[in-house]
Amino acid sequence: MKVLITGATGQTASYLVEYILENHKNVEIHCTRRWRSREENISSFKNKVIWHNIELKDQFNTYSLIERIQPDKIFIFSASSYVRDSWLHPQEYISENTSHLLNVMNSVLMINHIDLNTLKVNLKYNPKIFVALSSEEYGKVEHGQKITEEFPLRPISPYGVSKVAADLLAYQYHQSYNMNVYRFRLFNNEQCKRGEIFVTANFVKQVAQMEINEIKPVLSVGNIKSVRDWSDCRDSVRAIWTGLEKCQPGEVYNICSETANTIEDLINKLKQLSKIDFEVKVDPTRIRPSDVDWLLGDCTKFKKITNWQPIFNFINDTVPEMLTYWRSRI
Questions:
Q1: Which residues have a Cβ under 8 Å from the Cβ of 252 and sit 6 or more positions away?
Q2: What is d(CA 92, CA 80) in angstroms, rounded to the nearest whole number?
Q3: Could you give the dihedral angle defined by the CA atoms of residues 176, 178, 181 and 184, in that order, rounded to the nearest 10 degrees?
Q4: CB neighbours (10 Å) of residue 213?
Q5: Which of 29, 97, 112, 295 is 20 to 30 Å from the Cα of 135, by its Cα?
């Protein structure tokens, strides 16, 4: 079996590579990266996979790669994913987060020689295509509600809008061409490789810096009352791999922990783990123009089909591991 993983230098994709290497040793793994991609997340497998330096916003690049290797499974993780930044660069987010998926799906159509007059195509080559979607698609949800896949999509950030667009494009290509596209809406998933611009890694890094007096013992925060459904990334990638084996293409599935924690809960855990006392101070630059203040997922649909269950608890397992990781880096 051949798999292609785009954006493999990012957090979630890199954990998927490690999961496959450990559990499915007969899989030939192809990964994409840009020439300028950072490499700290890939040290454990850099020489164990086949790398392709391409730009997925370019249709020719994407087609040439897929036509050459014809992978059985394609995992699309490459994207712009920092929610706050999407207000500053909305056009870039919409473009990047739809073009990668479109170029992959159109490459499959081209390999199968779609008739551009009738738009008919016989998909002799029809790989399983995973697209990483997001809980940000749901937007504002009433406090206390568990979010099922049937909830209306009302994104309140350009990033969320870009993911809705990708979501519906995946659905449309499945309906139009019977393409094997899998739509998984991932709620927040975290682990040691999480980029430091994201709230969890940013807070953990700040605490590690405080412990060695690199910065003052003041944690800069935004809205700490927001509720999140955090999963450990290792649980998420196991769900993704299992889902492509057992779920139905075209259908949509939530992947989440079904556990609600506030950002304040994360801070309190860090206070418990830290070697020092620190203050908490709101930084106005960390406040978003509009914020999703309640995210609690329901993945009953996914669990019934796959029998998947999370193994790790974010607060008690993941956060301590992240702090140990950042202490070692600092």
A1: 133, 149, 167, 171, 183, 184, 185
A2: 8
A3: 80
A4: 9
A5: 29
pTM (2 d.p.): 0.95
Tell whether 159 is covered by a domain: yes
Q: Which of 181, 184, 183, 186 is nearest to 129 (CA)?
A: 181
Mean pLDDT of 93-106: 97
Q: Indicate the DSSP class of residue 315.
A: I
CATH of the domain at 202: 3.90.25.10
Residue identified by tokens 């790398």 is: 51
Distance, in Å, from the CA atom of 330 to the CA atom of 321, rounded to the nearest integer, reads 14
Is 129 in the same domain as 161? Answer: yes
The answer to whether the beta carbons of residues 139 and 294 sit under 8 Å apart is no
Q: How far is CA 4 from the centre of its chain?
A: 16
**Are residues 30 and 161 located together in one domain of the fold?**
yes
Q: What is the mean pLDDT of residues 23-42?
A: 90
* Residue type at position 228: R
Let me know whether 26 and 90 are in one domain.
yes
Helix-, strand-, coil-residue percentages of the chain, each rounded to 5: 40, 15, 40
Structurally, how many domains does the chain consist of?
Answer: 2
What single string gives the DSSP state of each residue in 158-176? HHHHHHHHHHHHHHHHHHH
Q: Identify whether 13 is part of a domain.
A: yes
How many C-beta atoms lie closer than 10 Å to residue 68's C-beta? Answer: 10
Q: Are 202 and 180 in a shared domain?
A: no
Residue 124: φ, ψ to 5°: -70, -35
* Residues 247, 270 within the same domain: no
**What tokens were used for 64?**
């040439």
Query: 54: closest CA among 19, 108, 11, 103?
Result: 103
**Structural domain span for residue 323:** 195-229+259-294+313-329
Q: How does pLDDT run across 272-307, given as a tens digit for each residue?
A: 999 999 999 988 877 766 678 899 999 999 999 999
Pairing label, strands 181-186, 128-134:
parallel
